[in-house]
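This section describes the prediction task in plain terms. A model, or a person checking by hand, is given the sequence of a single protein chain and must write out its three-dimensional structure as a string of tokens. No templates, partner chains or ligands are provided. The sample shown here is typical of the held-out split.
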Amino acid sequence: IKDMSGILLPYTAYDLVKSIKEVTNLPIELHTHCTGGIGEMTVLKAVEAGVDIVDTAISPLSSGTSQPATESLCLTLKDSERDPQLDLMKLNEIADHFKNVMKKFEEEGTLNTKVLMTEPKTLLYQIPGGMLSNLLIQMKSLNAVDKFQAVLDEVPKVREDLGFPPLVTPMSQIVGAQAVFNIVTGERYKVIPTEIRNYVRGLYGKPAAPISDEIRKLIIGDEEVITVRPADLLENSYEQMKEEIGGLAKSEQDVLSYALFPPVAKAFFEKRAGK
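The expected answer:
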């Protein structure tokens, strides 16, 4: 269960986990965020409902747009049926290390303390924690942190314009970038990233809701929207990739890795081969 925006409410989490458990024996993992201030409560109710795995973060890197603190959850569940029985002394050692890391990030200005704050409005914006962090970085690089709230207000508007795409990578970054451009330039859709155009063209699949003719025309003009499966438009290049990478590839998986990440995969294969 991936709650990237941290909007899964505690009792909803309980009902969801219970319902899934009734129809499958597969292990259930919950990933949520504390952005809206409900992450810890959501995790606890999910634990009560029988969730098998929950994602947490060591305390210095927890809360805010991150996950609930590992140590706090361990202490909460101590001596209960769901006690994870982790070594708290070792967890404290890890926490002490990352306290220094966090201090360094704060001093360097790498860490913006806004990401550590609780923002219940997230439950309305439905913006993922990682997306919030990225937006802050973008606004800082543009010397426009003062317009951060305006960008947050713009995100749900852009999302509605685009047919309510789920704010999961890569769409969260794409929608966020468009919201930033709309606010920073002072004019909506004056600057339109290629990814937004491709999305409206249909290259990311069919939107959850229709995109209005007005928005479509604004973004791609009179271009035709594809109605087929986007992948069907791609040429089969497996044999070409296989020939390019040659003997460095030892398996089909290697060829696929090269097709997806050519420079990175090739460098890795060369290092593996001792070249």
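For orientation: The beta strands are 29-30, 53-54.
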